[in-house]
């Protein structure tokens, strides 16, 4: 399969002022590519250049091996459909009228719809679950409904590439998942290329074949989600601590309370997570241990705890870790004991629990 | 509800809508005929319906009646119809262009710009050559209309807020009126009489030659507008969506502006600036059709504008007969409340 959308040496920006230089992209048919990056980093600018709403300042973009700046608008419309962030409030148009606009590149000079067009319109509306909104006035819909109707419009334009600027805004979790299901289906069944920008990096990780990391004046990286999420790229991209976003769980964590640990939490296998979150909300700095690095508690403690005493997976708890845990516990005012299943490997956790009961006020979680 | 059931419902609703379009057109056609007859019938000389039909279709009748109908009343009615349609269509195009239902040739200062240039040309021309020609008037009106439109477009680049843009248009309108008044103040008395009558707006004194000239210009514009119904419908979703569907936006914008300017300039050249028709009629039409689909709204707006202007002209002519009111007085009385109602409804309905 050859590249369907490419950019080489592309410089984008507004009013002739370059914002991002030297963008290189190669996107195949049926691929899902997501642009991520901080607010105002230029995701929309790149998308608008790809859709020809902005003229490229330098370099070239090709669609289906044709130079984007040479292609007529009409030809482009048969290849590419868009979902924009523009607020459209057309007067007195029903949802079906709006969806029907997707047939624009295919209808005759007066724009009359054939039976075939009507069928495609219905198909698209069924696909995004808006058929029952057909006769409703588009202006009176909720933002989420409007977004889905506009998606149906893009679908019935039968594009080879669909470009979506922040398509998930206004959508609740169910429709987000549905939207991605639809996009995936289009990618697989119709071999449609999907290019979109997203703020939800966790979703980007799960839906995309490739991710373009856009950072203000340059492209930080263009590659597979695995490449991007296994390294510290996200932290660099958004200027955040690597503790804020956990790529393994795809979860966003609040920053850990600052200061020396005041509470020590002994937990395992997820029993500590609600306690960690509770302490974080109360603003109490805490330490956690002894946690195996493959324990789900460890993933959250890593983000929220001031200190974590860890042990390598499946090994026995070492003397060293035990002492370190006790040392930290000595500095804490109290200990919270969660439910800890004890097996042969972590048998020595009992010693830590006994030590806690002897020396500190203990609380069962 | 399963899909077939829903599709049946959708098809049924579509038929209902089509019926509504048909009913609206039939109703307008009936009103059109009624107003034409009423218009010929009433005046300083009352002519019976039988007489009217005989004069028009059989071309027979008393000389006086025949002349009143063929030389005075009919050309005036025809002119009111064509110019009214043009004005409404111009309003519809401007509303599409600015995506604002309150845009119109009068509010945006386009009529006043045309008026200013016509006044200038009238005085200059009459001083030079003793009389003016309709071609010069139309050209002057067109230049004036384009000047105002150009200015409003410049404003619209700087101003994203549409209501402020409208205020800008109103200001343009005031500036042009001030210039026109200034010209009138320093013009010869004989010119003023001429100018004053015209600048207030009236269909009086229309001739068949005027009508045919206007008809050709307006007819061409109206046909082009109708053929552009498809890109106009795409434009209703916004400029960016329209482009993504294959509309060459730059070309399309230029076309919209030229069409609306030519339409309102022609009206202004012949009948002076006429207020509110351009806003009120498209709105009333869209409401009664309950759609904004250009392919239906464009012919309906033209027909509606014709009916509205003939009706207003009838009132201007007969309400305080023998004194005639100027046409804007009447269109304002009927048009302004519609616009106010529209603004109220808009603020109550859309804001959520």
Describe this structure in words.
The complex is a heterodimer of chains A (365) and B (352). Helix content of chain A is 34%, strand content 25%. By secondary structure, chain A is an alpha/beta fold. Chain A folds into 2 domains: 3-245, Rossmann fold; 257-364, NAD(P)-binding Rossmann-like Domain (Rossmann fold), CATH 3.40.50.720. Chain A has a 6-stranded mixed sheet, sandwiched between helices. In chain A, strands 15-14-13-16-17 form a 5-stranded parallel sheet, sandwiched between helices. The radius of gyration of chain A is 26 Å and the shape is elongated. Chain B is built from 14 helices and no strands. Chain B is globular. Chain B has helices spanning 3-41, 49-58, 63-97, 110-129, 134-158, 162-185, 189-200, 208-227, 229-235, 239-244, 249-271, 277-289, 294-318, 327-349. The longest helix of chain B has 39 residues, at 3-41. Chain B has one domain (78-349): ABC transporter involved in vitamin B12 uptake, BtuC, CATH 1.10.3470. Chain B has 352 residues and is mainly alpha-helical. At the A-B interface, helix 2, strand 6 and helix 3 of A face helix 1, helix 9 and helix 10 of B.
């Amino acid at each position: 399969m050859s590249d369907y959308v490419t950019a080489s040496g592309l410089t984008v920006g507004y009013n002739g002022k370059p914002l991002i230089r030297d963008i290189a992209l190669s996107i195949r048919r049926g691929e899902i590519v997501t642009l991520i990056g901080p607010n105002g980093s230029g995701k929309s600018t790149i998308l608008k250049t790809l859709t020809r709403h902005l003229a490229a300042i330098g370099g070239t973009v090709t669609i289906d091996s044709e130079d984007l700046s040479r292609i007529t608008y009409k030809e482009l419309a048969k290849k590419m459909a868009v979902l924009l962030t523009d607020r459209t409030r057309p007067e007195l148009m029903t949802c079906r009228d709006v969806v029907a606009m997707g047939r624009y590149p295919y209808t005759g000079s007066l724009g009359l719809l054939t039976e075939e067009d009507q069928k495609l319109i219905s198909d698209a509306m069924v696909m995004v679950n808006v058929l029952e909104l057909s006769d409703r006035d588009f202006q009176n819909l909720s933002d989420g409904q409007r977004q889905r109707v506009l998606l149906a419009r893009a679908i019935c334009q039968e594009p080879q590439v669909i470009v979506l600027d922040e398509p998930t805004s206004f959508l609740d979790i169910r429709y987000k998942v549905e939207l991605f299901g639809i996009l995936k289906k289009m990618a697989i069944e119709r071999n449609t290329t999907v290019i979109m920008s997203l703020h939800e990096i966790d979703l980007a990780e799960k839906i995309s074949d490739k991710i373009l990391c856009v950072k203000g004046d340059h492209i930080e990286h263009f590659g597979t989600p695995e490449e991007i999420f296994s390294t510290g790229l996200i932290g660099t991209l958004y200027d955040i601590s690597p503790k804020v976003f956990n790529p393994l769980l795809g979860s966003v964590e609040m920053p850990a309370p600052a200061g020396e640990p005041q509470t020590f939490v002994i937990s395992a296998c997820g029993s500590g997570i609600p306690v960690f979150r509770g302490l974080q909300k109360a603003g109490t700095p805490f330490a956690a241990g002894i946690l195996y690095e493959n324990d789900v508690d460890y993933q959250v403690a890593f983000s929220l705890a001031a200190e974590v005493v860890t042990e390598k997976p499946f090994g026995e708890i070492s003397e060293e870790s035990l002492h370190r845990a006790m040392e930290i516990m000595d500095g804490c005012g109290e200990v919270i004991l969660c439910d800890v299943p004890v097996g042969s490997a972590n048998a020595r956790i009992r010693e830590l629990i006994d030590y806690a009961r002897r020396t500190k006020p203990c609380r069962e979680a | 509800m399963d899909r077939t059931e829903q599709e049946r419902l959708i098809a049924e609703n579509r038929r209902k809508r089509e019926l509504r379009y048909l009913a609206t057109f039939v109703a307008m056609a009936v009103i059109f005929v009624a107003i034409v007859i009423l218009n010929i019938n009433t005046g300083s000389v009352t002519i019976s319906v039988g007489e009217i039909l005989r004069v028009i279709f059989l071309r027979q009748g008393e000389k006086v009646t025949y002349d009143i109908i063929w030389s005075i009343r009919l050309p005036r009615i025809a002119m009111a119809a064509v110019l009214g349609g043009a004005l409404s269509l111009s309003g519809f195009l401007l509303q599409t262009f600015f995506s604002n239902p309150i845009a119109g040739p009068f509010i945006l200062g386009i009529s006043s710009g045309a008026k200013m240039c016509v006044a200038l040309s009238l005085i200059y021309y009459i001083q030079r050559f003793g009389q003016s020609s309709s071609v010069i008037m139309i050209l002057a009106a067109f230049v004036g209309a384009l000047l105002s439109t150009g200015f409003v477009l410049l404003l619209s680049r700087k101003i994203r807020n549409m209501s402020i843009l409208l205020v800008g248009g109103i200001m343009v309108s005031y500036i042009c009126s001030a210039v026109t008044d200034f010209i009138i103040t320093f013009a010869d008395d004989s010119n003023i009489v001429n100018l004053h009558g015209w600048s207030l707006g009236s269909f009086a004194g229309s001739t068949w030659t005027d009508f045919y000239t206007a008809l050709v210009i307006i007819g061409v514009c109206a046909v082009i507008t109708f053929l552009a119904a498809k890109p106009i419908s795409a434009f209703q979703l916004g400029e960016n969506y329209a482009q993504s569907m294959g509309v060459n936006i730059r070309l399309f914008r230029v076309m919209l502006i030229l069409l609306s300017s030519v339409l309102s300039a022609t009206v202004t050249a012949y009948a002076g600036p006429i207020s509110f028709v351009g806003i009120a009629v498209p709105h009333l039409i869209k409401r009664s059709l309950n759609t904004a689909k250009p392919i239906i709204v464009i012919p309906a707006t033209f027909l509606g504008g014709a009916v509205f202007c003939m009706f207003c002209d009838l009132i201007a002519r007969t309400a305080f007969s023998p004194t005639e009111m100027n046409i804007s007085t009447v269109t304002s009385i009927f048009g302004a409340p519609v616009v106010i109602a529209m603004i109220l409804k808009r603020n109550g309905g859309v804001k959520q």
